[in-house]
Design a protein that fits this description.
Blueprint lengths: L1 E5 L7 H11 L4 E7 L18 E5 L2 E4 L3 H12 L6 E8 L6 H4 L1 H11 L3 E7 L13 H11 L11 E7 L9 E4 L11 E6 L5 E6 L12 H6 L2 E8 L8 H5 L3
Helix pairs in contact: 1-5, 2-4
The structure holds manganese (II) ion.
Manganese (II) ion binds next to strand 5.
Length: about 250
């Protein structure tokens, strides 16, 4: 089995090494094509206004001067001679729960894989605390990764399907198990702006994500992780809200 590993935290991120270790539980044919620099929040963006550079680190390890989506495209179109059987994206430094998935470069790399018809799985390690930064421990992902991924390897994935896995911020022995749940949605307070002045007196702004309020909806990824489970969520690239099709059509 040939596995392509990528992420959005960049080629040097500790979570990428965790994803590679998980991949090696399943195969020796593991390839890495990942962004050269951190691309968190890049979503499903493509680089169209400047050239991409591909840097070879060793026979099966490459970095791309672009986004996670660029990296998957480069992996499929240039680096790998044939399509991989599996794409693993992550392990992201921080959660990709609820509406995070639309911002997430980690999840979007798996979306790109799904578009290409490759079985694709995103993996994220939830932070214990905000501001934990590089101190985030991946021990839960390390211990639970194989158990979360292996059941997905021989399961049919419908066209356009991908799977989003979030590991809770707990020591591995305190994780209660794995739950298959839907995507949740946080209540409000998603973003705020931090405003400061630069040394020349001009304002600059920084997006901040403190004070997010969430009520754990039942059977959502938010609830599962809060309750101490690994959350496994099937996603689909068809974003149509089918409940609104009839009422919307009646407007025209
Ligand atoms: Mn990230």
């Amino acid at each position: 089995m040939r596995i392509l590993v990528t992420n959005d935290d960049g080629i040097h991120a500790p979570g990428l090494a965790v994803a590679e270790a998980i991949a090696r539980r399943f195969s020796d044919d593991v390839w890495v094509v990942a962004p050269a620099d951190e691309q968190s929040g890049a979503g499903h963006s493509l680089t169209l206004t400047r050239p991409l550079r591909l840097r070879r680190h060793d026979d099966r390890r490459f970095s791309v001067s672009g986004t996670p989506t660029d990296s998957v495209m480069m992996g499929l179109l240039e680096v790998l001679g044939s399509p991989p059987d599996l794409i693993l994206s992550g392990v992201n430094r921080g959660a990709n729960l609820g509406e995070d998935v639309t911002y997430s470069g980690t999840v979007s790399a798996a979306m790109e894989g799904a578009l290409a018809g490759v079985r694709s799985i995103a993996m994220s390690q939830v932070y214990a605390r905000e501001g934990e930064g590089d101190a985030v421990r991946f021990t839960c992902a390390e211990a639970w990764g194989e158990r979360a991924i292996r059941p997905l390897l021989d399961m049919p994935f419908a066209p356009g399907m991908l799977v989003n896995v979030n590991f809770p911020a707990l020591p591995a022995d305190r994780v209660k198990g794995i739950r298959v749940v839907g995507q949740g949605m946080r209540d409000y307070g998603r973003a705020s702006l931090v405003k400061h002045k630069d040394p020349r007196g001009f304002p600059y702004y920084w997006l901040s994500f403190h004070g997010v309020v969430e009520t754990g909806g039942h059977d959502t990824d938010l609830e599962a992780v809060a309750d101490g489970y690994v959350a496994v969520t099937p996603l689909h690239l068809d974003l149509t809200y089918r409940d609104a099709l009839t009422s919307l059509a009646a407007r025209y």
